[in-house]
Amino acid sequence: xxxxxxxxxxxxxxxxxxxxxxxxxxxxxxxxxxxxxxxxxxxxxxxxxxxxxxxxxxxxxxxxxxxxxxxxxxxxxxxxxxxxxxxxxxxxxxxxxxxxxxxxxxxxxxxxxxxxxxxxxxxxxxxxxxxxxxxxxxxxxxxxxxx
Length: 147
What we know:
2% of the residues are buried. The longest helix has 68 residues, at 79-146. The protein is 80% helix and 0% strand. It is mainly alpha-helical. Helix 1 crosses helix 2, helix 2 (31-58) crosses helix 3 and helix 3 (66-75) packs antiparallel against helix 4. The radius of gyration is 33 Å and the shape is elongated. The chain folds into 2 domains: 1-77, Histone, subunit A (Orthogonal Bundle), CATH 1.10.20; 81-147. Pfam families: CBFD_NFYB_HMF (PF00808). It is found in: Nucleus. This is DNA polymerase epsilon subunit 3. Its main location: nucleus.
C-alpha cells in the first residue's frame, strides 16, 4: 500500500490529458483546479476499488473482475456509468479476441509453411537417392560393358 498520501495521486500528465479532452478547445485550467480534479479522481478510484473489492470478497475471491467494478458503480449510485463501461469492456474483449485470433492464425500459417518446407526436404532427399541410384546403374552398366 502507499506510504504517503501523494503516492495515491494519479499521474499529472494523465489527469491533464483527460481534462484537455473533456474541455472545449481554448479553455484553460488553473494548477489548483487541476490538483483538485486529480485528488477527486484519486479518491474516486480508491472508493470504486474498495467497493469492487467488497464484491470480490463476497464471492470469496482475491481478484477483482469487471462484474465487481460494474456492481460497485451501481452501489455507488453511478448507474449512468454502467452502460458506457459495458460498451468499453465489450470493445476491449473484441479487440483481445481479434489479437488472439490473429496470433493463432499467424502460428497456423507458420506451421503450414514449416510443413510445406518439410516435404520439399523429403523431395530433395528423394532426388538425392534417385541420383545415387542412377549413378550406381551407370557404374554397373559401365562395368558390364567392360566385362
